[in-house]
Please model this.
Amino acid sequence: VYEGSPEQTVAIDVNGRFQTRLALKREWAQYQVTIPGTALQSGLNGVTFKYGYAVAPARVIPGNADTRELAVAFNSVALRRADSR
Model:
C-alpha cells in the first residue's frame, strides 16, 4: 500500500470460472476460501488471481525507482482438502 492507495481486491478463478472476490486489508492478514469440489477437475487445475489494481512504486512513492507493476504480496499460498486440518 502507499499513501492514498485505493482498497485492493482480488478475484479468484479456478479453471477459468469465478469463485469469489475478497477485499484485502491494508496490513498482513490470512484469508481462507473454500473452493467447491465441482470447480475442480481430474488432473491439473488452474488457480488465477485477478487484482483490482496494480501500480509501479516509481509512480506513487517519491524517490522509488522500481518500475514493476505490483498488486499484492503473498507470504504463502496453501491448498488442502477441506477434510484435512
Observations:
- DSSP finds one helix and three strands in the chain.
- Residues 57-60 form the longest helix (4 residues).
- The chain has a mean pLDDT of 94.
